[in-house]
Amino acid sequence: MNAVVSDNRLAILDHSRLRSRASAKGEGRGHVSVRGLSIEFDHNGGKRAAVQNAELDIRPGEFVCLLGPSGCGKSTLLNAIAGFVQPTRGTLSVDAQPVAGPGPDRGMVFQQHSLFPWKTVRENVAFGPLMAGVGRQEATSVARTFLSLVGLAAFEDAYPGTLSGGMQQRVGIARALANYPSVLLMDEPFGALDAQTRIMMQENLLEIWREFRNTVVFVTHDIDEAVFLSDRIVVMSASPGRIIADIRVELPRPREQTLLTSAEFMDYKRQCLDLIRQETLRAFQQQNGG
Amino acid sequence: MSVKPNPAFEPAEPTPAPLPTPRLAAAPSPADAPAVTLPRRRLPAMTGRYLVRALALLMALVVWHVATVTGFNFFVNFENVPAPLVVGQTLLAELASRDFYLHIAHSLGRVALAYAYAVVLGVLTGVLIGRSRWAEDIILPYIELFRPIPAVAWIPLAILMLPTEQSSIVFITFLGAFFPIVLNTVHGVEQTPDVLVRAARSLGANNRAILWHVVIPGAMPSIVAGLAIGMGVAWFSLLAGEIISGQYGIGYFTWNSYTLVQYPEIIIGMLTIGGLGTLSTLLVRKACTPLLRWQAKGGRP
Predict the structure, then answer these.
(1) What pLDDT digit, counting tens, does each position of B4-46 carry?
(2) Judgement on whether residues B99 and B51 belong to the same structural domain of the protein
(3) Could you tell me if residue B175 is inside a domain?
(4) Whose CB among A186, A235, A248, A261 lies 3.0–4.6 Å from A218's, allowing a Cys bridge?
(5) Under an 8 A CB cutoff, do B19 and A140 touch?
(6) Range of the domain at B56
(7) Which among B21, B201, B213 has CB closest to A116?
(8) Does residue A230 belong to any structural domain of this protein?
(9) ipTM of the complex
(10) More confident residue, A286 or A188
(11) Looking at the complex, does the CB of residue B195 fall below 8 Å from at least one CB of chain A?
């Protein structure tokens, strides 16, 4: 499939790499499979389940949001897919490969402050390719490509500390994508941004994803964000974290800001709101010893 | 400088970027930034402050002068203290003598050698302790035990154990610089933000790359603070070491003047050590600024 390049800055992407990834095994790469997954942490001498018996299948190229109240283990599940957290029970694999640890096939975008402050914006983005063993020159050119993609080519020599929060997150996205990961993992990446910047970033992300079509697993507690972005919303309950709903979002793409006030959007939002509300109430009662 | 600039985080282009970078991120507050690099201030304000500093030093001279001229003696006795003008005359005489420069040259040589050892061994040991639990458990008890021992206390053992006078003095000076460097390096290395290590791992970095690209540059502000403190301590340990020497060195010069009851010379020796210590500490900080360029540009994590 030849992507229609609507925007000039997208034309510079390495389309051969995107395509080879898409046609590797007939189907695209980025299949995430979670089977009977439980994750427990030591807690006051006992064990506390952050994730309990999670079953999840994410198809290649799907945009999935993990939605839930804070403390529901959605970030833990994401960290397990990233390879930072070891599951207590169950299995976890990406493209039939069991997850054994972090790796460049699963790009990670953190909530904030994850750029190397001592590296310039360009050096941050070039880091992944450099670790992959391409030369410094090649890594720099890849970095420039991805910085243009997120609209920050003019800031390549700046240090992260001089950029705004939104710009830093765009660098973070460029850095994760520079490895051409089959799965992009995002842990509340826009959670620390103001509302206006967040909406711009969401549109920006969808625009980039339209080009890449890689799998995205996006953690958020913001219902609007989840409905606006995803093909599928996986709703999780609070402690212990269980998957309680799997909602397919059939809103047309490309999605724009005007969608946020449409009737269909409101329907999805209401559905999620009800689920989250029930869960939050339950968690409240639990905390109050009820 | 003995700290090699790390090519991995040294920006490719030496010229600062002429970008209209918006300063949206909050500037680092002086409270959380180590006092290694002063933020760039407006020039007139800075010259004004230097003027105040110079006046403050001048004031001490005036107080000293008045106290010696009037023979001030209440608890603190100035009767036998040489007046600043006498010291000034002696200083001019010393500056004209070849020996004075020989003393300084010997001391500079010893400090340079001792400091070079301290930087290399201190940073290496610090990184090792900060990164390895084993190294921490084996080495740290020694550091804690030996650190409070003053340099003078090492003189007898240094003389007994080391082959030459020179090596004893260098050893004692080295000890002074070594401990602050080790401890600051350990502190910096242990403070590596976990999220940066995770980010590096998910980008495909192995342990060595993480050490080189994340841990060491992250610890650099703390290491540089240790290097600056270490240089100061090196100078005051040097004086203790040079008590051994029977020939040259500014510490020997000061000590010898005391035994010969040459009071103006004592003060000159003291001030020379103070001046050289300040200058060399300044030099260390200047030499290290390229390593912390990211911080000067508001790059706190």
Answers:
(1) 444 333 333 333 333 343 333 333 333 343 444 455 556 667 7
(2) no
(3) yes
(4) A186
(5) no
(6) 40-81
(7) B213
(8) yes
(9) 0.88
(10) A188
(11) yes
